[in-house]
Amino acid sequence: YYPESQTAELRPNDMFASVEIAGAGFINLRLADSYLARELDKMLADKNYARPNIYQNQVVVSEFSDPNPFKVLHMGHFYTSVVGDAISNLIELAGGEVHRVNFGGDAGLHVAKAMWAIVKNLGGENPEKLSGIPKSQRTDWISQRYVEGNSAYSDDDAAKLEIIEINKRIYKVISEKDQKSPFARVYWTCRQWSYDYFDDFYASIGVKFEKYYPESQTAELGLKTVRQHPEVYTESHGAIIFNGQPYGLHTRVFVNSEGLPTYETKDMGCTLQKYADYHYDKHIIITANDIIEYMKVVLKSIEQFAPQAALTTEHYTHGLLKLPGGVKQSSRLGNAVKAVDILEMTAAAQEKQHGNHDQRLILGAIKYAFLKNRLGPDVVFDPETSVSLQGNSGPYLQYAGARAKSILRKASAPLKTDLADWQFDQFERTLALKLFQFPAAAHQAAAELAPHQICNYLYELAGVFNRFYENSPVINHPRQALRLKLIQVYTQILDQGLGILGIEKVEKV
After folding, report:
1. pLDDT (tens digit, 9 = 90+) per residue, 155-174?
2. Residue 197: what are its φ and ψ, rounded to 5°?
């Protein structure tokens, strides 16, 4: 039991209208109307009102998406791109200097499989024949060659040996910077086609990358590092490995018996190169959760000689993106759902339900459907549900913002700046209190790098606003000034929250 003398600090003042003990362990605090009015003014005046400052003055490298040239972008790349961009936005909100980068395999067995089939399809090493493939067909043409090469590698022993030799030739082309031989010209042309395709897709979904790290470049640094640290990477049966067992991890090969770098060496080289380029305070890698143990080994090996680069790295993982029905997909078999398929499915659902093809709403539907789920488990994406205006969806929030802005456009009187003498009614107070929760929601989302926390808050906020909208006339009402200010703060916060999610705001319905 605490006597009243020990709780004297909590008294009604310019912040609290009342302070009441409400039973054991509970105290009811009611914010003063004048305080609510002052905070509304602060939120309007200060665009950084919700900034958590968790990453203030920190350099953060954020790596995500990571597509491989010579293969198609599938819906998993779409999901990772959206998640990675939103997490990067959260870090920027919290004061961080973010460098978005991408990493992918432009060398390795998958490229060799594609190149084997490309050469076969061209009737030999004939780069001039590539000009006959229309730009609109290049991506599908290359991905089909990869499927053919993968099947040949599995089913034809002679083809498998040829592909292994082609793999060596690709590394030679890269290491010697060969631009002139017919084989090299085929390789560089098809690789550039892949990069152009990646750039076009990222632009279409509003995601930008500062730098792309190809494995062909990071492999060289990785190999050099492996050879410089024989105390870390040891020889075993003609290969070079990192023994993870002393650290409770498994052992992985970093250089195979052919003397070629594995994915491990390329990943290790990429981390070292990013650290050399940015000297980051924090390094985030976002991937599917199937390589959790793999990344533990790679980072533990780096920790032995470059602890700063490894210990500031965090690996964030997510589950699979699935469609209703859960059909198993594989780019190796050619039945993966492509990233562009998700756009087309959602556009069809938008057209069916609403009779329009608004790209802002289509992307808003997809991004919100991805981000409203906690990072980690598998996500089922339903195009039909994603475009709904009734439920927890991106378009619902976009329209909620547009509806509020339509009220602001209709208002003829300017906003009254001093509302200190006003008393808030039930619906005004409820909306104001929900608006004031945004800094806490933003802080939690940034601390956890959890975009779904922003989604949760915005959905709840829109629900509170809708109840306010239904019960609180605005235009030509005696309380117009106060209600307009509430609506203005609401649209400001909603736009900021949607911006964190990478969702474009809608001005008119």
Report:
1. 999 999 999 999 999 999 99
2. -65, -45
